[in-house]
Amino acid sequence: QVQLVESGGGLVQPGGSLRLSCAASGSIFTIYAMGWYRQAPGKQRELVATITSGGSTNYADSVKGRTTISRDNAKNTVLLQMNSLKPEDTAVYYCNAYYSGPFGNYNYWGQGTQVTVSS
């Protein structure tokens, strides 16, 4: 069984900052990539940022320049630092891990953490 434990969501004012954390544990052999996605009300889930085990990153255009994703491979943890937050960043943020396990490769999602940007 695998767990992705997310933390760091909450209410923040426009222009503020937030850091999301996601820790993976369980029957994991190797995590190939981890990332964050978000889903706003009435919209589809979309990419925020991903990072591979080798450190390659990918960001959505909407967050480039104000968001940094980082990873601690030893702890199977991924961090998302978001700055200059805007009301349109309001969404449920989901952690994702693509990893190898006992019987193959898996794509797993966390439960999600709410981020609300409002004054």
Overview of the molecule:
This protein has 119 residues and is mainly beta. The protein has strands at residues 2-7, 10-12, 18-26, 30-39, 46-52, 57-59, 67-72, 77-82, 91-101, 104-109, 113-117. The strands form two sheets. Strands 2, 4, 5, 6, 9, 10 and 11 form a seven-stranded mixed beta sheet that branches. The chain has a four-stranded antiparallel beta sheet with strand order 1-3-8-7, with no helix packed on it. The chain is globular and about 45 Å long.
Summarize the structure.
With 119 residues, the protein is an all-beta fold.
Query: Which range does the strand content fall in?
Result: over 45%
Q: What series of H and E elements makes up the topology?
A: EEEEEEEEEEE
Largest sheet, in brief, is: 7 strands, mixed
Q: How many E-type strands?
A: 11
Number of separate helices: 0
Uncertain segments are: none
Question: What class, by secondary structure content?
Answer: mainly beta
From the N-terminal CA to the C-terminal CA, the straight-line distance is: 40 Å
Give the fraction of residues assigned to helices.
Answer: under 10%
Provide mean pLDDT, rounded. Answer: 95
Shape call: globular
Rg calculated over all Cα atoms: 14 Å
Layout of strands and helices, then pairs:
Elements (H helix, E strand, L loop, with lengths): L1 E6 L2 E3 L5 E9 L3 E10 L6 E7 L4 E3 L7 E6 L4 E6 L8 E11 L2 E6 L3 E5 L2
Parallel strand pairs: 2-11
Antiparallel strand pairs: 1-3, 3-8, 4-5, 4-9, 5-6, 7-8, 9-10, 9-11
Short descriptors:
119 residues, 0% helix, 61% strand
